[in-house]
Design a protein that fits this description.
Layout lengths: L9 H4 L1 H12 L9 H10 L10 H24 L4 E5 L6 H4 L7 E6 L1 H10 L6 E5 L17 E5 L8 H14 L3 E7 L2 H9 L17 H7 L4 E7 L11 H10 L3 H6 L2 E6 L1
Helix pairs in contact: 2-3, 2-4
This protein binds S-adenosylmethionine.
Length: 272
């Protein structure tokens, strides 16, 4: 079948960054995530971008944070087989496939309508995995979700693209609509946002950032329904053993300090 993918906006196109990063990781002899579906999707679309020059050292962060979110979701679903899962700004990620959600779980991948149209062409249907094409800042999409089941919400690489007020409203709508659950996402702190301006490989992203950066603990001030379960600091996680030697050494040193660890990628995990 010939693919006829919709033209994507610059923000929508950021889905290729995470997808190609996970695909690159999957091609390594010792992958951190091993997302072979990401690789299959990149090959199927023939996507190439000269700005994305992945190396083993640069892809570990994307692969590792996806792995941490998968682990959180997998544990939640094991405890709540009647759960729903929601992936906010899912892009072309196939998390439900990676974590192999059981048929008792309904999983919802939410992204802009054109991204969802691309997903529908590229990713085979799977029972109990649904797509919702919507702008997350629009309150209406949430009404189609069951409110009375435990909910696992994840967002990978999304929050920098939401203005602070939109992120706060989205979190509030989620905790108002859903009875109980957990939410986990990677935090874009002010250091990450500033560092992106200086890194030649990430500078092209800066005009798309709507967030000035925030910390894991800011979220609980903005939404008292949320309790912080854990700040998962990637530099302190076991996958560091798989980093290339120079990065591993630097990371082990950074991990000795909590402040330095927080400057790296943090996956914040909350309950409500
Ligand atoms: C960096 S990509 C990450 C995609 C995916 N989570 C992954 O890990 O591959 C960010 C995604 O957020 C989506 N996004 C950003 N703002 C959004 C909004 N207001 N509503 C819906 N999706 C949004 C983009 O379309 C894009 O797919």
């Amino acid at each position: 079948m010939t693919l006829s993918l919709p033209a994507l906006t610059p923000v929508e196109e950021t889905l290729w960054i995470t997808l190609t990063g996970r695909a690159f990781d999957s091609r390594q002899p010792d992958p951190i995530l091993g997302d072979t579906m990401a690789d299959a999707l990149v090959r199927k679309t023939g996507y190439t971008n000269h700005k994305l020059r992945w190396t083993r050292a640069s892809c570990v962060e994307v692969a590792q944070r996806a792995k941490k979110l998968d682990e959180v979701a997998r544990r939640f679903i094991a405890r709540h087989p009647d759960a729903i899962g929601i992936d906010l700004g899912a892009g072309l990620d196939t998390r439900a496939l990676r974590i192999d959600t059981p048929p008792t779980v309904d999983w919802y991948d939410v992204d802009f309508p054109d991204v969802v149209a691309a997903r529908r062409q590229l990713i085979p249907d799977r029972p109990h995995v649904h797509t919702i094409g919507a702008d997350l800042t629009d309150p209406a999409w949430l009404q189609s979700l069951p409110a009375d089941r435990p909910a696992m919400i994840v967002a990978d690489g999304l929050m920098a693209f939401l203005a602070e007020a939109d992120m706060i409203s989205l979190l509030r709508r989620l905790t108002d609509h859903l009875r109980s659950g957990e939410i986990a996402f990677n935090v874009y702190n002010t250091f990450t946002v500033r560092a992106a301006k200086l890194a030649p490989s990430a500078r092209f992203l800066v005009p798309l950032f709507k967030s000035a950066g925030f910390g894991s603990r800011d979220i609980v001030h903005w939404n008292p329904e949320l309790t912080l379960i854990k700040e998962i600091m990637l530099v302190r996680e076991p996958e560091v053993a798989q980093y290339p030697p120079a990065l591993r050494l630097w990371t082990r040193l950074a991990a000795l300090s909590t402040s330095l660890s927080r400057l790296g990628t943090v996956v914040a995990h909350y309950r409500f």
